[in-house]
Amino acid sequence: MTSDSAQEAERTDSRYPPDLDMSTPTVARTYDALLGGKDNFQPDRDAAMAVEQTNPGTTQLALENRGFLSRGVRYVSELGIRQFIDLGSGLPTVENTHQVAQSVDPNASVVYVDIDPIVLAHGRAILAENSTTTVVTADLRDVERVMSAEETRGLVDFSRPVGLMLVSLLHCVPDKDDPFGLVRRYFEWLPAGSALIYSHLCASDEDAARTFTERVHELGMEWGRVRSPDECARALDGLEIVSPSTDGSAARTLVDCDTWRNGDIEPQPRPTDPDKQIWEHAGVGVKRG
User: Which residues pair with 255 in a beta bridge?
Assistant: First the structure.
Protein backbone atom coordinates (compact mmCIF):
# COMPACT_ATOMS: atom_id res chain seq x y z
CA MET A 1 0.00 0.00 0.00
CA THR A 2 1.41 3.41 -0.95
CA SER A 3 1.79 6.18 1.63
CA ASP A 4 -1.13 8.11 0.09
CA SER A 5 -3.31 4.99 0.11
CA ALA A 6 -2.42 4.22 3.71
CA GLN A 7 -3.29 7.74 4.76
CA GLU A 8 -6.61 7.57 2.92
CA ALA A 9 -7.39 4.28 4.68
CA GLU A 10 -6.68 5.93 8.01
CA ARG A 11 -8.84 8.89 7.07
CA THR A 12 -11.85 6.69 6.36
CA ASP A 13 -11.38 4.43 9.40
CA SER A 14 -14.77 4.39 11.16
CA ARG A 15 -13.08 4.75 14.56
CA TYR A 16 -12.10 8.34 13.79
CA PRO A 17 -14.15 11.54 13.33
CA PRO A 18 -14.48 12.35 9.60
CA ASP A 19 -13.08 15.89 10.01
CA LEU A 20 -9.96 14.76 11.88
CA ASP A 21 -6.77 16.62 10.85
CA MET A 22 -4.16 13.97 10.13
CA SER A 23 -1.55 16.29 8.65
CA THR A 24 -0.24 17.81 11.90
CA PRO A 25 0.87 15.82 14.95
CA THR A 26 -0.92 16.32 18.25
CA VAL A 27 0.38 15.80 21.76
CA ALA A 28 -2.16 13.05 22.57
CA ARG A 29 -1.45 11.03 19.43
CA THR A 30 2.33 11.50 19.62
CA TYR A 31 2.26 10.30 23.24
CA ASP A 32 0.21 7.33 22.08
CA ALA A 33 2.88 6.58 19.48
CA LEU A 34 5.62 6.78 22.12
CA LEU A 35 3.69 4.26 24.22
CA GLY A 36 3.38 1.90 21.26
CA GLY A 37 -0.33 2.57 20.72
CA LYS A 38 -2.23 2.23 17.45
CA ASP A 39 -4.37 5.37 17.49
CA ASN A 40 -1.95 7.71 15.75
CA PHE A 41 -1.05 8.75 12.22
CA GLN A 42 2.22 9.01 10.30
CA PRO A 43 2.92 12.64 11.35
CA ASP A 44 2.47 11.58 14.99
CA ARG A 45 4.84 8.63 14.54
CA ASP A 46 7.35 10.92 12.83
CA ALA A 47 7.07 13.36 15.73
CA ALA A 48 7.62 10.58 18.25
CA MET A 49 10.73 9.48 16.38
CA ALA A 50 11.99 13.07 16.18
CA VAL A 51 11.71 13.73 19.92
CA GLU A 52 13.32 10.36 20.66
CA GLN A 53 16.24 11.31 18.43
CA THR A 54 16.50 14.73 20.05
CA ASN A 55 16.39 13.26 23.55
CA PRO A 56 17.22 9.54 23.54
CA GLY A 57 15.14 7.90 26.25
CA THR A 58 11.94 9.90 25.65
CA THR A 59 10.04 6.67 24.90
CA GLN A 60 11.19 5.14 28.18
CA LEU A 61 10.29 8.37 29.92
CA ALA A 62 6.71 8.08 28.63
CA LEU A 63 6.49 4.56 30.03
CA GLU A 64 7.91 5.64 33.40
CA ASN A 65 5.42 8.49 33.55
CA ARG A 66 2.56 6.05 32.90
CA GLY A 67 3.77 3.99 35.84
CA PHE A 68 3.72 7.10 38.02
CA LEU A 69 0.12 7.79 36.95
CA SER A 70 -0.94 4.35 38.14
CA ARG A 71 0.84 4.66 41.50
CA GLY A 72 -0.48 8.19 42.01
CA VAL A 73 -4.10 7.24 41.34
CA ARG A 74 -3.83 4.21 43.57
CA TYR A 75 -2.31 6.26 46.40
CA VAL A 76 -4.97 8.98 46.15
CA SER A 77 -7.68 6.31 46.01
CA GLU A 78 -6.32 4.84 49.22
CA LEU A 79 -6.73 8.29 50.80
CA GLY A 80 -10.47 7.79 50.21
CA ILE A 81 -10.89 9.91 47.06
CA ARG A 82 -13.44 8.37 44.74
CA GLN A 83 -13.78 10.94 41.94
CA PHE A 84 -11.15 12.12 39.48
CA ILE A 85 -10.77 14.77 36.79
CA ASP A 86 -7.99 13.76 34.40
CA LEU A 87 -6.92 16.87 32.46
CA GLY A 88 -5.22 16.30 29.12
CA SER A 89 -5.87 12.61 29.55
CA GLY A 90 -4.77 11.58 26.09
CA LEU A 91 -5.72 8.30 24.47
CA PRO A 92 -6.67 5.16 26.39
CA THR A 93 -3.79 2.76 26.98
CA VAL A 94 -2.96 0.21 29.66
CA GLU A 95 -3.71 1.10 33.28
CA ASN A 96 -6.02 4.05 32.56
CA THR A 97 -7.14 6.28 35.42
CA HIS A 98 -10.61 4.71 35.64
CA GLN A 99 -9.18 1.19 35.64
CA VAL A 100 -6.80 1.96 38.51
CA ALA A 101 -9.38 3.92 40.54
CA GLN A 102 -12.10 1.31 39.99
CA SER A 103 -9.76 -1.49 41.02
CA VAL A 104 -9.88 0.14 44.48
CA ASP A 105 -13.58 1.00 44.33
CA PRO A 106 -15.72 -0.12 41.36
CA ASN A 107 -17.96 2.92 41.91
CA ALA A 108 -15.17 5.49 41.51
CA SER A 109 -15.99 8.12 38.88
CA VAL A 110 -13.61 9.59 36.31
CA VAL A 111 -13.96 12.56 33.96
CA TYR A 112 -11.41 12.58 31.15
CA VAL A 113 -10.69 15.96 29.55
CA ASP A 114 -8.82 16.46 26.28
CA ILE A 115 -8.98 18.82 23.32
CA ASP A 116 -8.15 16.12 20.75
CA PRO A 117 -11.40 14.86 19.11
CA ILE A 118 -9.96 11.38 18.74
CA VAL A 119 -10.05 11.07 22.54
CA LEU A 120 -13.81 11.71 22.45
CA ALA A 121 -14.20 8.98 19.83
CA HIS A 122 -12.60 6.50 22.20
CA GLY A 123 -14.55 7.95 25.11
CA ARG A 124 -17.79 6.91 23.48
CA ALA A 125 -16.57 3.32 23.50
CA ILE A 126 -15.70 3.61 27.21
CA LEU A 127 -19.10 5.10 28.00
CA ALA A 128 -20.85 2.18 26.39
CA GLU A 129 -19.59 -0.12 29.13
CA ASN A 130 -18.77 2.17 32.06
CA SER A 131 -21.45 4.49 33.43
CA THR A 132 -19.10 6.20 35.90
CA THR A 133 -16.61 7.35 33.26
CA THR A 134 -17.08 10.19 30.78
CA VAL A 135 -15.12 12.42 28.42
CA VAL A 136 -15.24 16.21 28.02
CA THR A 137 -13.78 17.68 24.85
CA ALA A 138 -12.39 21.03 25.98
CA ASP A 139 -9.26 23.13 26.28
CA LEU A 140 -7.95 22.76 29.82
CA ARG A 141 -7.29 26.51 29.89
CA ASP A 142 -11.07 27.06 29.88
CA VAL A 143 -11.53 26.15 33.54
CA GLU A 144 -15.16 27.27 33.66
CA ARG A 145 -16.05 25.13 30.64
CA VAL A 146 -14.36 22.03 32.06
CA MET A 147 -15.79 22.29 35.56
CA SER A 148 -19.27 23.41 34.53
CA ALA A 149 -19.71 20.87 31.74
CA GLU A 150 -22.82 18.71 32.04
CA GLU A 151 -20.63 15.61 31.85
CA THR A 152 -18.46 16.82 34.74
CA ARG A 153 -21.43 17.85 36.89
CA GLY A 154 -23.05 14.50 36.24
CA LEU A 155 -20.22 12.55 37.86
CA VAL A 156 -18.41 14.92 40.23
CA ASP A 157 -19.79 16.15 43.55
CA PHE A 158 -17.76 19.28 44.36
CA SER A 159 -18.67 19.04 48.04
CA ARG A 160 -16.43 15.95 48.29
CA PRO A 161 -12.67 15.63 47.63
CA VAL A 162 -11.54 15.26 44.04
CA GLY A 163 -8.36 13.89 42.53
CA LEU A 164 -7.20 16.42 39.92
CA MET A 165 -4.70 15.01 37.44
CA LEU A 166 -2.14 17.06 35.56
CA VAL A 167 0.13 14.25 34.44
CA SER A 168 2.73 15.25 31.82
CA LEU A 169 0.58 18.19 30.76
CA LEU A 170 1.59 21.66 31.99
CA HIS A 171 4.72 21.68 29.82
CA CYS A 172 2.22 21.82 26.92
CA VAL A 173 0.93 25.18 28.20
CA PRO A 174 2.88 28.32 27.16
CA ASP A 175 3.99 30.82 29.81
CA LYS A 176 1.58 33.42 28.41
CA ASP A 177 -1.33 31.22 29.52
CA ASP A 178 -0.12 31.13 33.14
CA PRO A 179 0.11 27.34 33.55
CA PHE A 180 0.60 27.41 37.32
CA GLY A 181 -2.17 29.94 37.80
CA LEU A 182 -4.44 27.42 36.08
CA VAL A 183 -3.77 24.95 38.89
CA ARG A 184 -4.91 27.51 41.45
CA ARG A 185 -8.04 28.25 39.45
CA TYR A 186 -8.99 24.57 39.35
CA PHE A 187 -8.43 24.16 43.07
CA GLU A 188 -10.76 27.09 43.79
CA TRP A 189 -13.52 24.66 42.74
CA LEU A 190 -12.31 21.84 44.98
CA PRO A 191 -12.83 21.27 48.72
CA ALA A 192 -10.24 20.44 51.38
CA GLY A 193 -8.96 16.90 51.06
CA SER A 194 -8.69 17.14 47.27
CA ALA A 195 -5.39 16.06 45.73
CA LEU A 196 -3.22 16.93 42.74
CA ILE A 197 -1.45 14.13 40.85
CA TYR A 198 1.24 15.91 38.88
CA SER A 199 4.23 15.48 36.61
CA HIS A 200 6.04 17.92 34.30
CA LEU A 201 8.93 17.58 31.84
CA CYS A 202 11.93 18.99 33.62
CA ALA A 203 15.62 19.78 33.06
CA SER A 204 18.23 21.50 35.15
CA ASP A 205 20.36 22.03 32.04
CA GLU A 206 19.09 25.08 30.14
CA ASP A 207 20.57 23.94 26.83
CA ALA A 208 18.86 20.54 27.05
CA ALA A 209 15.54 22.19 27.93
CA ARG A 210 15.82 24.68 25.08
CA THR A 211 16.84 22.08 22.47
CA PHE A 212 13.92 19.77 23.33
CA THR A 213 11.44 22.66 23.44
CA GLU A 214 12.56 24.06 20.09
CA ARG A 215 12.29 20.63 18.46
CA VAL A 216 8.69 20.16 19.60
CA HIS A 217 7.77 23.63 18.35
CA GLU A 218 9.37 22.85 14.98
CA LEU A 219 7.07 19.83 14.67
CA GLY A 220 4.07 22.17 14.67
CA MET A 221 2.48 21.14 17.96
CA GLU A 222 1.02 23.78 20.28
CA TRP A 223 3.31 23.51 23.26
CA GLY A 224 4.90 25.33 26.18
CA ARG A 225 8.41 24.37 27.28
CA VAL A 226 10.53 22.12 29.43
CA ARG A 227 10.96 23.90 32.78
CA SER A 228 13.44 23.86 35.65
CA PRO A 229 12.84 21.92 38.91
CA ASP A 230 12.00 25.15 40.78
CA GLU A 231 9.52 26.20 38.10
CA CYS A 232 7.86 22.78 38.04
CA ALA A 233 7.40 22.87 41.81
CA ARG A 234 5.20 25.98 41.56
CA ALA A 235 2.23 23.78 40.62
CA LEU A 236 2.02 22.58 44.23
CA ASP A 237 2.17 26.02 45.87
CA GLY A 238 -0.41 26.06 48.67
CA LEU A 239 -0.72 22.27 48.75
CA GLU A 240 0.80 19.84 51.22
CA ILE A 241 3.28 17.72 49.30
CA VAL A 242 3.12 13.99 50.02
CA SER A 243 6.37 12.24 50.92
CA PRO A 244 7.65 10.48 47.76
CA SER A 245 8.77 7.35 49.65
CA THR A 246 6.44 4.46 50.42
CA ASP A 247 7.30 4.61 54.13
CA GLY A 248 6.76 8.38 54.29
CA SER A 249 10.28 9.09 55.53
CA ALA A 250 11.62 11.03 52.53
CA ALA A 251 11.48 14.83 52.40
CA ARG A 252 8.24 16.24 50.99
CA THR A 253 9.40 17.35 47.57
CA LEU A 254 8.99 16.56 43.88
CA VAL A 255 11.17 13.79 42.45
CA ASP A 256 11.96 11.90 39.26
CA CYS A 257 8.62 10.22 38.47
CA ASP A 258 10.16 6.75 38.24
CA THR A 259 11.26 7.00 41.88
CA TRP A 260 7.97 8.29 43.36
CA ARG A 261 6.62 5.65 45.78
CA ASN A 262 7.98 2.93 43.53
CA GLY A 263 8.57 0.04 45.91
CA ASP A 264 11.97 0.11 47.57
CA ILE A 265 13.47 2.54 45.05
CA GLU A 266 14.87 5.55 46.87
CA PRO A 267 13.25 8.81 45.70
CA GLN A 268 15.65 10.97 43.68
CA PRO A 269 15.36 14.71 42.93
CA ARG A 270 16.65 13.96 39.42
CA PRO A 271 17.74 10.81 37.53
CA THR A 272 20.94 9.27 38.85
CA ASP A 273 22.14 8.69 35.27
CA PRO A 274 24.03 11.91 34.37
CA ASP A 275 23.24 11.36 30.68
CA LYS A 276 19.51 11.63 31.39
CA GLN A 277 19.11 15.38 31.04
CA ILE A 278 15.31 15.51 30.89
CA TRP A 279 12.89 13.78 33.26
CA GLU A 280 9.34 14.01 34.59
CA HIS A 281 9.36 15.92 37.88
CA ALA A 282 6.48 14.42 39.83
CA GLY A 283 4.55 14.32 43.05
CA VAL A 284 1.20 14.47 44.81
CA GLY A 285 -0.13 17.39 46.83
CA VAL A 286 -3.19 17.63 49.10
CA LYS A 287 -5.35 20.68 49.77
CA ARG A 288 -5.65 21.32 53.51
CA GLY A 289 -8.16 23.62 55.21
Answer: 282
Amino acid of residue 95: E
Q: Could you tell me the pTM of the whole model? A: 0.89
**Residue-by-residue pLDDT tens, the chain, 289 positions:** 444 444 444 544 455 554 566 778 888 788 888 888 877 889 889 988 998 899 888 899 999 999 999 999 999 999 999 999 999 887 666 678 999 999 999 999 999 998 887 777 777 776 677 889 998 999 999 999 999 999 999 999 999 999 999 999 999 999 999 999 999 999 999 999 999 999 999 999 999 999 999 999 999 888 999 999 999 999 999 999 999 999 999 999 999 999 999 999 999 999 999 999 999 999 999 999 8
Which domains are delineated in the chain?
A: 3-54 (no CATH), 58-286 (3.40.50.150)
Beta strands in the chain (DSSP E): 83-87, 109-114, 133-137, 163-167, 195-202, 240-241, 255-256, 279-286
